[in-house]
Design brief:
heterotrimer; A alpha/beta (178); B alpha/beta (549); C alpha+beta (241); A: 178 residues; alpha/beta; Rossmann fold; five-stranded parallel sheet; two-stranded antiparallel ribbon; 6 helices; globular; C: 241 residues; alpha+beta; Ubiquitin-like (UB roll); Alpha-Beta Plaits; 2 domains; five-stranded mixed sheet; 9 strands; 24% helix
């Protein structure tokens, strides 16, 4: 094990656009790798969340029971929790279903709009919670990076600042929905 | 014109003298709701049946105060041997009439030698329960309209204002703004058209002082308004009454009609050159319309929402004209002040709070009802002596004063004299006079939640802090009552209290956090007891790890 | 005795800067004239102010009360502070409340990138909303031939109500309900397309600070608003006085 700080990314209810934007930092990922170890992510093969991670980026809103338990677990094992992107920060598009009952959302998706196998799944797919909510409504969050998605430059800037031990000032580079 | 008032007084006294007995039945809203009108009819029938019609009369009068014991009846009020009966039913009519010339009906007796009746000092309520509110003659016979005639014939407008200033009277609607000062500013405002408005949009939960005054003694308000009109130079007045008070409105209408016929309202009042007309405007049930700028908007036919002040209505009020707005109880004190002088009034009360104040006692108290006491009376005396103590024999925990804008005063502070400054030092307010007494079983979190729900639904929705902030505060309080709150919720609640209080546009929003802040101040433990039970950290981690896998 | 003259020119200090003012100028106007930024969402040049958004609250020396800059007039010797820590905190809270009240989803909004609420959130450094969202259920009204109304994005600033009433003279819009249930409605709470008073002028659409009112056929981020007609309208208005 190296002495470098550790980095993790977690994908909850989001479109993975924030992860794509993260990858858009292109060759700078080498700079990042020199500064930190990516120990857990949909992008790597680790199956188990490590005992303690220095920085964890969260993409996506908390929508299902799995999301809910996962984010609470991640919080317990993370020093600095970062809400990455509008879904994590505001619940964004996933929250648009909050105006409707879970049952009617599922019916619309799996029965009304389905051509085959018209049936609401009860196994494998985690149960939806009543509402999709931002990460900070469930656990304390240390840094917020709004944006849909946040620009690659913004993500890179935020990470290098955090790794340098500073809280990034993102006021001019981010906004909701941008 | 004084002669005319004297004539009426003499005629009234003669009429009264013709009867050996007078039976008064309270027909104000409280007793009416327990069939007092039917009791009155039964008494009348019974009197006729006994052939006593020529020497015994039955009257409907206003509120006698002790609403808890209604329907109330008095026999030969204010005469030696006055008898009060409580919880009377239609079936008791025969016994009461039969007892008139013999011994009273003991099973119905309501003692009047108790503190509830003895400790009060009545000015605003001086005629309540003693006159028929639908007969101007009875009001006149008790010195009614003599204050107005004195003002019109013997005093200049500035003399009238001087008396009001000297009286030290302060606004009885809640704010406690010096009435004399308000009259002075309106009188000094430029403009040939000015208005007088009587705010009878009483909306605090548990408060019914204004309703009672309007139902029991409506002429007193008209006289007060006319004196105000003379003092500030207005010839038109409006009484803004909430639509939920149909009896008050009906009696007020009757009173206006009678006063016009008696030349106490209208053109050339009492043979002088002074004109003053009064019209009624009905509120449609919005609490916020008790706020003066919202009330004015409502009279103008607009949506009842407040606007930022300044400019104050004294300068820019109804239809942009200088406008005097006072509460019902404030106007109820005007005629006695003019009759007896401002100094007389200033001798009653304490410190910077002069005169008397009417309170509506409600909640877990034995003597629920309406009382009037001198300012400065300690809360303890109001609750335990006049109020008769706590119903059910429990201990008193707190008193809520001032309605949704007020706060809860814990039993430990009951030696506090009731005046504007002392109550606000305790984090509550005098308010319009509602006093809700709570025993030990009351949950302070629930009390705060109840009032927040009230403010949330009564917010007019114009400014953001009140419109949305009250919803969040209510939701957090709801979490507390479900025992689901977290320390973060408490922190957020306190932040919102501060924000809504300091940034809201009108008094409703600015005072909406008061019930929360005062219960947090005195009963913080109860909030802490409503927090979510903390789970053991280690167990939680293990459990969550498992789920995540 | 009437005073023979009346002072019409006032001098005051805003954030320590000496400012000369006419007596009919508000603190907000003076600040804008002097390049001092005071946030607002309900103020609209050319129509009367309502002081409802509470973003322009300022501190004035000598009073504990915070005063709305849009409705507070210049007074001699006034000392105004527009940007204290306390004011900034309250303003952020106001925006928090606005975002939580309705269903604002910037990423899929027609006004994304051209929205005053979104812009102000960035300007005031709102990185997240500190209160839970309320998620009300509100129907979109697309019955009008040219425009759509999405109350999910409405912040109840009532600019549309005022511009329609005071400038166009149609009074198609007004507010219904109380508290958080308040809703901007057309005519007697009927679909906008059936509101006979509407002249289809579109001023309401142009002055709406968010994407609540927009031209039909615009996709995400495509709705830009033209405000250039407002100074003209204001001149017209003053001419009418």
């Amino acid at each position: 094990m190296s002495e470098k700080p550790t980095l993790a990314t977690v994908w909850l209810d989001g479109c993975s656009g924030c992860h794509m934007s993260f990858l858009d930092i292109d060759e700078r990922i080498l700079d990042l790798a020199a500064q930190a170890d990516l120990v857990y992510s949909p992008l790597v093969d680790t199956k188990e969340f490590p005992e303690m991670v220095d920085i964890t980026l969260i993409e996506g809103a908390v929508s299902s029971e799995e999301d809910y338990h996962k984010i609470r677990m991640v919080r317990e094992h993370t020093r600095l929790l970062v809400s990455l992107g509008d879904c994590a920060v505001t619940a964004n598009v996933p929250a648009m279903r909050n105006r409707f009952a879970v049952r009617s959302v599922l019916e619309r998706a799996y029965i009304e709009n389905a051509d085959l196998n018209q049936d609401i799944p009860v196994q494998v797919i985690p149960a939806l919670r009543e509402t999709s909510i931002p990460v900070h409504q469930v656990v304390p969050v240390d840094v917020f990076i709004p944006g849909c998605p946040p620009a690659a430059d913004t993500i890179f800037f935020a990470l290098t600042e955090l790794l340098a031990g500073r809280k990034p000032d993102l006021r001019t580079t981010t906004r909701f929905g941008a | 014109m004084f002669d005319r008032l004297e004539e009426i007084t003499k005629a009234e006294q003669e009429t009264a003298g013709r009867f050996d007995h007078t039976v008064d039945v309270c027909v104000a809203a409280g007793c009416m709701s327990s069939q007092s009108v039917a009791i009155k009819e039964a008494l009348e029938k019974e009197v006729e049946a006994h052939g006593q019609g020529h020497r015994c009369r039955v009257r409907g009068t206003g509120c006698m105060g002790l609403c808890a014991a209604g329907p109330l009846i008095t026999v030969d009020a204010e005469k030696p041997g006055e008898i009060m009966y409580k919880q009377v039913t239609v079936g008791d009519a025969a016994d009461i009439v039969a007892s008139l010339d013999s011994t009273p009906v003991e099973r119905l007796r309501c003692r009047t030698d108790v503190p509830f009746f003895q400790r009060q000092k009545k000015i605003a309520l001086e005629n309540s329960g003693l006159i028929d509110p639908e007969r101007i003659e009875e009001y006149i016979a008790r010195e009614g309209y003599s204050g107005l005639m004195r003002a019109l014939t013997e005093m200049s407008p500035s003399d009238v204002i001087d008396e009001v200033v000297a009286s030290g009277l302060r606004g009885r609607g809640g704010g406690g703004y010096p009435t004399g000062l308000k009259w002075t500013t309106v009188a000094k405002s430029d403009g040939d058209v000015k208005y007088v408005i009587c705010n009878a949009d009483e909306g605090d939960p548990g408060a019914f002082m204004d309703r009672s005054v309007l139902e029991s003694d409506p002429h007193r308000i008209l006289e007060g308004m006319a004196i105000a009109g003379y003092a500030i130079g207005a010839s038109q007045g409006y009484v803004y009454v909430r639509g939920e008070y149909p009896t008050a409105v009906a009696r007020l209408k009757t009173a206006i009609r009678q006063a016009r016929r008696a030349n106490m309202l209208g053109s050339g009042i009492g043979g002088t050159l002074f004109n003053f007309h009064v019209d009624i405007r009905l509120g449609a049930g919005a609490f916020v319309c008790g706020e003066e700028t919202a009330l004015i908007a409502s009279i103008e036919g607009k949506r009842g929402t407040p606007r930022p002040r300044p400019p104050y209505p004294a300068e820019f009020g109804l239809w942009g004209r200088p406008t005097l707005i006072n509460n019902v109880e404030t106007f109820a004190n005007i005629a006695p002040i003019i009759r007896n002088g401002g100094d007389w009034y200033a001798r009653i009360g304490s410190g910077a709070s002069k005169g008397t104040k009417v309170f509506a006692l409600a909640g877990s108290i034995i003597n629920t009802g309406l009382i009037e006491v001198p300012m400065g009376t300690p809360l303890r005396e109001i609750v335990y002596e006049i109020g008769g103590g706590i119903s059910g024999g429990g201990e008193c925990k707190a008193i809520q004063t001032g309605g949704p804008s007020g706060g809860c005063i814990p039993a430990g502070y009951f030696d506090t004299p009731v005046d504007y400054e002392s109550l606000s030092a305790l984090g509550s307010i005098m308010g319009s006079g509602g006093m809700i007494v709570m025993d030990e079983s009351a949950s302070m979190v629930d009390v705060a939640r109840y009032f927040m729900e009230f403010c949330m639904t009564e917010s007019c929705g114009r400014c953001v802090p009140c419109r949305v902030g009250t919803v969040h505060m209510h939701n957090i309080l709801d979490k507390f009552s479900r025992h689901e709150a977290t320390p973060h919720d408490l922190e957020l609640l306190e932040k919102l209290c501060d924000m809504v209080r300091n940034t809201s546009l009108c008094g409703l929003g600015q005072t909406a956090p008061n019930p929360v802040m005062s219960t947090l101040r005195y009963f913080r433990d109860e909030y802490m007891d409503c927090m979510m039970p903390e789970l053991n950290g280690a167990e939680r981690v293990g459990e969550l790890m498992e789920v995540a896998r | 005795m009437k005073r023979p003259f009346k002072t019409r020119i006032k001098t005051l200090k805003i954030d320590g800067i000496d400012v000369g003012a006419r007596e009919d100028e508000t603190i907000l106007e003076l600040a804008q004239e002097n390049d001092i930024f005071i946030p607002t969402l309900c103020h609209l040049e050319g129509v009367h102010d309502v002081g409802s958004c509470r973003l322009c609250l300022v501190e004035v020396r000598g009073t504990n009360k915070l005063l709305p800059a849009c409705m507070t007039y210049a007074e001699e010797g006034m000392e105004v502070i527009t940007n204290s820590e306390r004011l900034q905190a309250y303003r952020r809270q106001v925006l928090d409340l606005l975002f939580s009240e309705r269903n604002h989803v910037c990423s899929v909004c027609v006004s994304n990138g051209h929205c005053e609420l979104q812009w102000l959130a960035g300007k005031l450094g709102i990185s997240h909303v500190g209160v839970p969202y309320l998620y009300p259920q509100l129907e979109v009204d697309a019955s009008h031939r040219y425009y759509s109304y999405d109350p999910n994005r409405c912040i109840l600033c009532t600019r549309c109500v005022r511009v329609c009433d005071e400038i166009e003279g149609a009074h198609t819009w007004d507010v219904m309900g109380r508290g958080v249930e308040c809703l901007v409605i057309s005519d007697l709470n009927q679909p906008w397309g059936t509101a006979e008073s509407c002249t289809r002028c579109g001023k309401c659409v142009q002055v709406c600070p968010t994407g609540a009112l927009f031209n039909k056929g615009r996709a995400v981020a495509e709705m830009t608003k033209r405000r250039d007609f407002l100074p003209y309208l204001q001149t017209m208005r003053e001419g009418r006085k």
